[in-house]
């Protein structure tokens, strides 16, 4: 699982493990921990605007290609 931390939010992001097409997020807690069981799909209306969502998805896709 590849995780991406955005400078603009207190979340980490990853792509779906099934097809790598859907973007998921989980909160980063105040102690810096992340519960990997809390990932949920990103809704661009609530968490990110569409431009930010595409940028994060593209960065994660590029990282997946490096594996």
- Class from secondary-structure proportions: alpha+beta
Shape: globular
Order of helices and strands: EEEEH
Cα(first) to Cα(last) distance is 11 Å
The level of helicity is 25-40%
Share in β-strands:
15-25%
The number of domains: 1
> What's the pLDDT, averaged over the residues?
85
Q: How would you write the strand order of the largest sheet?
A: 1-2-3-4
Count of beta strands: 4
- Contiguous low-pLDDT stretches (5 residues minimum) are none
The radius of gyration over CA amounts to: 11 Å
Total number of helices: 1
* Biggest beta sheet attributes: 4 strands, antiparallel
Descriptive report:
This protein is α+β, with helices and mostly antiparallel strands and 67 residues long. It has one helix spanning 50-66, and strands at residues 4-5, 11-15, 23-27, 40-41. It has one domain. The chain is built from one helix and four strands, in the order E-E-E-E-H. The chain has a four-stranded antiparallel sheet with strand order 1-2-3-4. A hairpin with a 5-residue loop joins strand 1 (4-5) and strand 2. The chain is globular. The chain starts with a strand and ends with a helix.
List keywords for this structure.
single chain; 67 residues; alpha+beta; four-stranded antiparallel β-sheet; 25% helix; globular
Helix and strand arrangement:
Elements: E1 4-5, E2 11-15, E3 23-27, E4 40-41, H1 50-66
Antiparallel strand pairs: 1-2, 2-3, 3-4
Describe this structure in a few short sentences.
The protein is α+β, with helices and mostly antiparallel strands and 67 residues long.
């Amino acid at each position: 699982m590849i995780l991406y931390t955005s400078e603009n939010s207190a979340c980490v992001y990853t792509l779906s493990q099934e097809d790598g097409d859907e973007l998921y997020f989980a909160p980063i807690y105040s102690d810096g921990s992340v519960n990997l069981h809390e990932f949920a799909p990103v809704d661009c209306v609530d968490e990110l605007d569409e431009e930010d969502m595409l940028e994060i998805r593209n960065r994660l896709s590029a990282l997946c290609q490096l594996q």
